[in-house]
């Protein structure tokens, strides 16, 4: 919207607030000194702001026109993203290639000399052809980068997609986060990541992590505006704390909800939010991946060899020039001498262009771009590119149970209440249960919940939105005739303590209409809630004392029985507070009762409970999970289930999945509870490593004993999961971890690859993860593992091909310069070869789809060499064959075949052995095409080079295109490429040499055992640090031509200053 249009809309609604009015509320200084609170008062408090925004603090927006007006006036919540790089900008970036710049200058000099020697009519051809070749390289490279960037941009947009719940027209509605507008009443829960700025108007026990925006590491307590204003009005002891920003109603985008639930009125969206403004200032590029850093070291080694050969070749050519001048063939000070010097210099520069394998990082980027797109189609949304390749080496997977191994479609299939157990369709037994007991149970379920499932009007089935366990209970209550919409939202809710992994229960305090006082509803892990009950609803709905023997019977015969049937058990309880203990004079006064409820310690709320019921909830395992677990075992990956369920439920599910054996007794440490594990391994302790304090496992020997056998951890806390991941990584394992809760974030960050659940996962978990599973399915982790291994395979195939071309091209260029006084390949031909071996080969080999056989071998290790012994054999064998063939063409072929210049070329500007050099050029390229076929096979066992030949049409398309262009260059290139057309016999000879390369590679595999190659190391594989990527030899000589990740130092600097800039910007 233009400035004028925006002001016109503002003029229509003069009573409404401006964008500046709202965004000024979220400046850090204004929040800390109380100015923001004062401004809210001036606007008429939270209700006044709602009126000015044409919304309501209870019902939200009441009609669509108000939403559209808000969008017109205050903008939408479209994520802020970096302006896309245009194709022209990418072309100019490619022109920053140092060697290409030198080559362009040399080509210009060559053109001038040619026109002086031969005249304008024909003298321009050679230089113009070089210009065209360089333009072609730049255009293809820039086009490739453009398509690649567009694909990554689409991926980032997918990452920004999300869902949230708002209240509109009095109903809870799920919308896309990009559809949030100013004035919306947004519901937030524990684990949410705020994408808008807003004012908290309702909530309980809310704590926020504002460190991403302010650098403040402390948890920040938040209160609803009316409570904050009331406390300040009453001059309670919060003013000093509030002044430090430790209590406020302002919720800032980019921060995370660590505890509690609530509602906020949205006051800023999109680029007007605090995080939106920061994103415009600080948009980071993708940092280089570990594989790219390792390959940069290989590329630098090859580049050094290329520079050495280039210098030696130039010296050899200059030596021949000096000798010819000494012999008097032509004067030293002449145009001819200058022309030879320029041509020799261009040959030397072109050798560097060909030798420096800047296609290596390009191949990684293409492989990643291709893989992340395919992975997204298979339910893996990649956030961190390096996680793709790291999954190729994963040998341990620590998986959640709920929703990952199971379907996350919860249903109450067993119910214990009134000392009776009911199975299957439990609501059909409602005539056997007292009405008061049903009412008490269903009220507890409906009030004590944060889920808002919806019933499909067509199928009359529930769509589970929110916590699936709560949805199952709410569906059960609905079957008994109690719909949660009759109970929530409600003014009767005085306080709510959300479920978290430490308490393992949730409590809601309500105003009880009958007693006119406070009632507490609690639900949670059965054994924990049961231990806090001193009564239960017995036969005929009568409350009875819960003695220790009965408590034990309930645990052994109900909870344990449900758990052994793979059921999750949830206990439902309540408690009516005694008015005499808190003041009976406030009966019926909701405001005063709210204060009392807020001041009661959490532990005091949940004691002396009355047990209403125990629900057994079934969550069937996913049908494909047992097969996926079996695949993991076959591929050398150990699967460990880490769950919060009790040990019997966890064991039953693990056996059903195939994690635990069913045909033998379970070992001592195969199944362990989190508390026992934590105590046995000694928790975590601080240790100094390289001058830094890091967390390590307390007792490494005990941990080694446990980790060797452990397959299931029950009743696990996030701390237990973090200890497990820390210890496994310290043992040298590559760990993948799944998580969905806020407290899983540390383990997800610590793991080599963190998987967050896309459906059930909290925003905090998704923010900490590397990959988001869009379907919450364990089989999708297998997909990531398959693609991770395939990325390594693709890069290795490309390296096999490129190193062979490099070695052959360098050797023959130097040999030709020494023996023939010229390079067998001229500048134009070498530029074409460079295009083949870099851009075309990376497209063909880096986009190979994965074969199922990649899951039949062991994972890569952290210290595995990229260039394996088998690859060394392929590279050396292919290079020897090609060098021998090319030497035969140069030194022996003229003795057996008529290679005289065609009559039509006699008298023109052609070398006397132009036919021989054309056969050399044609053979060289054809052998590379056939060599690429051999390079598609990496393993020792596969002899047939055409195995899986039909799984990559792009490969065959690229090779066909290469052969067609090559034949066109030979037949019609003429004076532009300095080649002669060939006869059919000569073409067949070149083709025969190409086919021979495949036959020779088969013979090498058969004749040379792999063990003979174990001690051959062609290149060092020293990883280049991220900060040194821009100063490596590859980047200096071929700067930014294809990598597009060459801003690693800038990315690091940006990351280092992000917190500092964030804090400054919002002040």
Automatic annotation (TrEMBL):
Which catalytic reaction applies to this protein?
A: Ca(2+)(in) + ATP + H2O = Ca(2+)(out) + ADP + phosphate + H(+); Na(+)(in) + ATP + H2O = Na(+)(out) + ADP + phosphate + H(+)
- Enzyme class, top EC level, equals translocase
The listed locations are: Endomembrane system; Membrane
- Which residue spans traverse the membrane? 99-116, 128-147, 345-370, 798-820, 875-894, 914-933, 954-974, 986-1008
Q: List residues of the Cation-transporting P-type ATPase N-terminal domain.
A: 47-110
- In this chain the Cation-transporting P-type ATPase C-terminal domain maps to 823-1006
Its main subcellular localisation, reduced to a broad class, is membrane
Keyword Transcription appears in the UniProt entry: no
Q: Name one Pfam family in it.
A: Cation_ATPase_N
Q: Where is this region: Disordered?
A: 1043-1067
Q: What's in the keyword line of the UniProt record?
A: ATP-binding, Calcium, Calcium transport, Ion transport, Magnesium, Membrane, Metal-binding, Nucleotide-binding, Sodium, Sodium transport, Translocase, Transmembrane, Transmembrane helix, Transport
Q: What is its EC number?
A: 7.2.2.10
Keyword DNA-binding part of the UniProt annotation: no
Which Gene Ontology cellular component terms are annotated? endomembrane system; plasma membrane
A single MF term (Gene Ontology): ATP hydrolysis activity
> Where is the P-type ATPase A domain positioned along the sequence?
160-282
- Which InterPro entries does the record match to this protein? ATPase_P-typ_cation-transptr_C, ATPase_P-typ_cation-transptr_N, ATPase_P-typ_P_site, ATPase_P-type_domA, P-type_ATPase_IIB, P_typ_ATPase, P_typ_ATPase_HD_dom
Topological category with respect to the lipid bilayer: Multi-pass membrane protein
Matches recorded under NCBIfam families: ATPase-IIB_Ca, ATPase_P-type
Entry's family note: Belongs to the cation transport ATPase (P-type) (TC 3.A.3) family.
Give the protein's biological function: Catalyzes the hydrolysis of ATP coupled with the transport of calcium.
PANTHER family, A to Z: CALCIUM-TRANSPORTING ATPASE, CATION TRANSPORTING ATPASE
What is the designated name of this protein? Calcium-transporting ATPase
Provide the species name.
Paramecium octaurelia
Lineage per the UniProt record: Eukaryota, Sar, Alveolata, Ciliophora, Intramacronucleata
């Amino acid at each position: 919207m233009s400035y004028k249009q925006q002001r016109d809309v503002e003029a229509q609604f003069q009573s409404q607030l401006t964008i500046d009015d709202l965004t000024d509320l979220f400046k850090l200084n204004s929040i800390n000194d109380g100015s923001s609170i004062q401004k809210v008062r001036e606007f008429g408090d939270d209700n006044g702001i709602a009126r000015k925004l044409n919304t309501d603090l209870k019902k939200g927006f009441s009609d669509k026109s108000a939403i559209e007006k808000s969008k017109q006036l205050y903008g939408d919540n479209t994520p802020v993203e970096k302006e896309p790089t245009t194709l022209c900008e990418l072309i100019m970036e490619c022109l920053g290639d140092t060697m290409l710049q030198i080559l362009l200058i040399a080509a210009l000099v060559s053109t001038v000399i040619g026109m002086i020697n031969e005249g304008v009519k024909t003298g321009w051809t050679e230089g113009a052809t070089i210009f065209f070749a360089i333009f072609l390289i730049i255009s293809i490279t820039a086009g490739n980068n453009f398509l690649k960037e567009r694909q990554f941009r689409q991926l980032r947009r997918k990452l920004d997609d999300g869902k949230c719940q708002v209240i509109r027209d009095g109903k809870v509605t799920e919308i896309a986060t990009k559809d949030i507008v100013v004035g919306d009443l947004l519901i937030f829960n524990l684990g949410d990541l705020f994408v808008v700025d807003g004012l908290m108007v309702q909530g309980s026990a809310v704590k926020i992590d504002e460190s991403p925006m302010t650098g403040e590491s402390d948890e920040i307590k938040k209160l609803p505006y009316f409570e904050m204003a009331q406390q300040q009005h009453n001059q309670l002891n919060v003013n000093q704390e509030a002044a430090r920003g430790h209590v406020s109603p302002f919720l800032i985008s980019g921060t995370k909800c660590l505890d509690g639930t609530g509602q906020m009125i949205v006051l800023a969206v999109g680029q007007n939010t605090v995080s939106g403004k920061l994103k415009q200032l600080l948009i980071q590029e993708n940092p280089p991946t570990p594989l790219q850093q390792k390959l940069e070291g290989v590329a630098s080694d090859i580049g050094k060899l290329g520079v050495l050969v280039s210098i030696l070749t130039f010296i050899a050519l200059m030596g021949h020039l000096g000798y010819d001048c000494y012999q008097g063939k032509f004067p030293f000070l002449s145009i001819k001498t200058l022309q030879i010097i320029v041509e020799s210099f261009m040959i030397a520069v072109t050798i560097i262009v060909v030798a420096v394998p800047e296609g290596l990082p390009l191949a990684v980027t293409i492989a990643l771009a291709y893989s992340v797109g395919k992975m997204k189609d298979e339910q893996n949304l990649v956030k961190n590119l390096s996680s793709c390749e790291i999954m190729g080496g994963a040998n341990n997977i620590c998986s959640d149970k709920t929703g990952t191994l199971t379907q996350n479609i919860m249903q109450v299939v067993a119910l214990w209440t009134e000392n009776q157990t009911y199975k299957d369709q439990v609501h059909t037994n409602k005539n056997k249960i007292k009405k008061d007991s049903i009412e008490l149970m269903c009220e507890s379920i409906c009030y004590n919940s944060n889920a808002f499932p919806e019933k499909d009007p067509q199928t009359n089935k529930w769509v589970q939105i929110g916590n699936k366990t709560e949805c199952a209970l709410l569906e059960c209550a609905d079957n008994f005739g109690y719909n949660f919409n009759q109970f929530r939202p409600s003014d009767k809710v005085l306080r709510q303590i959300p479920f978290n992994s430490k308490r393992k229960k949730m409590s809601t305090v309500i105003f009880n209409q009958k007693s006119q006082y406070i009632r507490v509803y609690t639900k949670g892990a059965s054994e924990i809630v049961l231990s806090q009950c001193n009564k239960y609803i017995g036969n005929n709905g009568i409350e009875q004392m819960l003695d220790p023997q009965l408590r034990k019977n309930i645990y052994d015969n109900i909870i344990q029985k449900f758990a052994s049937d793979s059921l999750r058990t949830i206990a439902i309880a309540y408690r009516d507070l005694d008015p005499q203990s808190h003041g009976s004079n406030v009966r019926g006064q909701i405001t005063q009762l709210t204060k009392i409820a807020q001041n009661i310690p959490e532990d005091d709320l949940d004691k002396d409970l009355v047990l209403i019921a125990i629900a057994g909830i079934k969550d069937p395992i996913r049908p494909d999970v047992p097969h996926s677990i079996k695949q993991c075992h076959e591929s050398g990956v150990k699967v460990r289930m880490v769950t919060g369920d009790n040990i019997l439920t966890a064991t039953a599910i693990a056996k059903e999945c195939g994690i635990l054996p069913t045909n033998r007794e379970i070992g001592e440490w195969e199944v362990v509870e989190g508390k026992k594990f934590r105590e046995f391994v000694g928790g975590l302790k601080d240790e100094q490593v390289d001058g830094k304090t890091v967390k390590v496992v307390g007792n490494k020997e005990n941990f080694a004993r446990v980790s060797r056998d452990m397959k299931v951890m029950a009743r696990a806390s996030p701390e237990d999961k973090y200890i497990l991941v820390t210890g496994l990584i310290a043992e040298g394992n590559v760990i993948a971890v799944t998580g969905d809760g806020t407290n899983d974030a540390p383990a997800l960050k610590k793991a080599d690859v963190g998987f967050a659940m896309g459906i059930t996962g909290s925003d905090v978990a998704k923010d900490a993860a590397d990959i988001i599973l869009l379907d919450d399915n364990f089989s999708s982790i297998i997909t990531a593992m398959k693609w991770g291994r395939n990325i390594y395979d693709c890069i290795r195939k490309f390296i096999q091909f490129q190193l062979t071309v490099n070695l052959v091209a360098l050797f023959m260029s130097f040999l030709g310069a020494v023996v023939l006084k010229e390079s067998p390949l001229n500048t134009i031909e070498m530029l074409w070869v460079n295009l083949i071996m870099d851009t075309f080969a990376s497209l063909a080999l880096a986009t190979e789809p994965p074969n199922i056989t990649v899951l039949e071998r062991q994972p890569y290790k952290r210290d595995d060499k990229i260039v394996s012994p088998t690859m060394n054999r392929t590279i050396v064998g292919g290079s020897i064959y090609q060098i021998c063939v090319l030497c035969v063409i140069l030194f022996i072929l003229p003795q057996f075949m008529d290679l005289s210049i065609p009559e039509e070329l006699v008298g023109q500007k052609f070398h006397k052995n132009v036919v021989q050099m054309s056969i050399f050029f044609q053979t060289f390229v054809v052998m590379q095409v056939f060599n690429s076929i051999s390079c598609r096979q990496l393993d020792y066992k596969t002899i047939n080079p055409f195995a899986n030949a039909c799984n990559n049409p792009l490969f065959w398309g690229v090779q066909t295109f290469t052969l067609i262009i090559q034949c066109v260059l030979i037949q019609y290139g003429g004076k532009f490429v300095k080649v002669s057309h060939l006869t059919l016999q000569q073409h067949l000879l070149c083709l025969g040499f190409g086919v021979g390369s495949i036959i020779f590679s088969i013979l090498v595999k058969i004749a040379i055992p792999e063990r003979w190659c174990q001690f051959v190391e062609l290149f060092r594989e020293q990883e280049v640090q991220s900060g040194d990527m821009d100063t490596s030899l590859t980047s200096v000589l071929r700067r930014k031509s294809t990598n597009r990740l060459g801003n690693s130092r800038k990315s690091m600097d940006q990351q280092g200053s992000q917190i500092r800039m964030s804090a400054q910007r919002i002040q």
